[in-house]
């Protein structure tokens, strides 16, 4: 059976959290390498820093999937030499440790970082599951969906099991299923459950069949999860005011593994090539080769101009036009120059006439005060006194 999985996950804040300016306390992650895995966390609503606890958990999970890959091989890909129950305890301790580190960093009670956790990890022969607290894990077997574990809900709202430092002793659910019997997995927090499940017995609603089928046919992406979780229908019920998360892991069509070697180029006609890259650089990018390609392209452009006289003439005219001043600018400069010359000429003419009429004008003071009398000189040079 094809063992190629597609994993998607998304979390959105509920309307109630948006109105009250509370951070989204859900967090989720879809891991594709080195193997398909999902983790969905829900922070405790009354915990001050539960959103940080949930975020720290998904980061710790991603790192742990890589670090314990040799053990996961033994537990899920080979004969059951390492039990999944022991692997589940390792996951639990890792998540609890992430919570403890936050408590030390913030110097506060670790319960302020409380969160629930639901996870699934795919293997060659088995799929491992673990549930801590509420939330739900749905498995699809031959197209039929069912909820894997019972809900760990307490008597009151938001009462459930949370990660605890010594909780790996047994306060969680864990199980494995034959990989050949499971064609899809979905994990939710409790936020979206009132619309996605039959609340009487938590039977998965038909929406799971539709979504998982679309993902399997590659007609559903992470953005579609976000679109679904933010529909108006969630605001029609007070329970829809909670944060919402959905993680999906499903098989996709029969894909030939390693159909292209790492260094093999895509075909020249491939849409991913023709839509984004010129044909000359469809291979691995090399700066030196790319510079050579650009130089050759410029040389070819120059040669084409030289070979076609009309094209060359058009190019020269274009270059000349590029340094010419606009005609209206030249006209304006000429007009200003003419006006300036006219002003100079008129000024010079008037000065000359004044000099001819009054040769003493340059040395005649307008007024002078002397012993309280006004003294003036007429054009003949005679003095007159005025009282």
Can I get a quick summary?
This protein has helices spanning 15-19, 50-67, 69-77, 84-106, 193-196, 206-216, 222-229, 271-274, 287-307, 309-323, 327-357; strands at residues 5-12, 26-31, 37-43, 115-122, 126-132, 136-141, 144-147, 173-178, 184-188, 197-198, 203-204, 244-251, 369-370, 373-377, 383-386. The chain is an alpha+beta fold.
Mean pLDDT: 74
For the largest beta-sheet, the strand count, sense and barrel status come to: 5 strands, antiparallel
Radius of gyration: 42 Å
Overall helicity: 25-40%
Distance between the termini: 130 Å
Q: What is the count of DSSP helices, taking H or I runs of 4+ residues?
A: 11
Overall geometry comes to: elongated
What is the assigned CATH homologous superfamily of the largest domain? PPM-type phosphatase domain
Overall tally of structural domains:
2
CATH architecture of the largest domain: 4-Layer Sandwich
Query: How is the CATH topology of the largest domain named?
Result: Phosphatase 2c, domain 1
Listing every helix as H and every strand as E from the N terminus to the C terminus, the arrangement reads EHEEHHHEEEEEEHEEHHEHHHHEEE
Number of E-state strands = 15
**If strands are numbered along the chain, what order do they take across the biggest sheet?**
1-12-9-6-7
Percentage of β-strand residues: 15-25%
Unreliable stretches, pLDDT < 50, 5 or more residues?
254-309, 356-387
Helix-strand makeup class: alpha+beta
CATH class of the largest domain: Alpha Beta
């Amino acid at each position: 059976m094809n063992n190629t999985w597609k994993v998607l996950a998304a979390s959105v804040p509920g309307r109630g959290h948006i109105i009250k300016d509370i951070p989204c306390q859900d967090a989720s992650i879809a891991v594709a390498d080195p193997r398909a895995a999902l983790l969905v966390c829900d922070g405790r609503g009354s915990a001050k820093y539960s959103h940080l606890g949930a975020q720290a958990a998904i980061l710790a999970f991603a790192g742990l999937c890589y670090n314990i890959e040799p053990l996961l091989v033994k537990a899920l890909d080979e004969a059951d030499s390492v039990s999944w129950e022991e692997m589940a305890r390792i996951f639990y301790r890792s998540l609890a440790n992430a919570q403890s580190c936050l408590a030390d960093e913030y110097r506060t009670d670790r319960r302020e970082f409380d969160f629930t956790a639901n996870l699934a990890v795919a293997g060659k022969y088995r799929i491992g599951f673990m549930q801590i607290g509420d939330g739900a894990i749905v498995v699809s077997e031959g197209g039929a969906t069912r909820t894997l574990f019972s809900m760990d809900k307490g008597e009151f709202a938001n009462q459930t099991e949370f990660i605890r430092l010594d909780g790996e002793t047994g306060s969680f659910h864990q199980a494995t299923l034959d990989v050949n019997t499971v064609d899809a997995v979905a994990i939710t927090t409790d936020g979206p459950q009132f619309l996605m499940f039959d609340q009487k017995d938590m039977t998965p609603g038909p929406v799971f069949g539709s979504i998982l089928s679309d993902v399997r046919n590659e007609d559903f992406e992470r953005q579609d999860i976000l679109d679904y979780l933010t529909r108006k229908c969630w605001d029609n019920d007070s329970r829809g005011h909670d944060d919402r998360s959905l993680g999906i892991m499903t098989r996709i069509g029969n894909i030939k593994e390693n159909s292209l070697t790492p260094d093999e180029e895509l075909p020249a006609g491939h849409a991913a090539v023709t839509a984004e890259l010129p044909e000359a650089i469809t291979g691995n990018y090399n700066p030196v080769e790319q510079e050579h390609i650009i130089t050759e392209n410029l040389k070819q452009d120059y040669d084409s101009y030289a070979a076609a006289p009309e094209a060359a003439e058009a190019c020269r005219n274009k270059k000349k036009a590029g340094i010419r001043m606009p005609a209206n600018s030249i006209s304006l400069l000429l007009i200003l120059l003419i006006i300036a010359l006219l002003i100079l000429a008129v000024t010079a003419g008037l000065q000359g006439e004044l000099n001819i009429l009054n040769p003493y004008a340059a040395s005649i003071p307008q007024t002078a005060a002397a012993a309280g009398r006004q003294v003036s000189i007429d054009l003949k040079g005679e003095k007159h006194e005025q009282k």
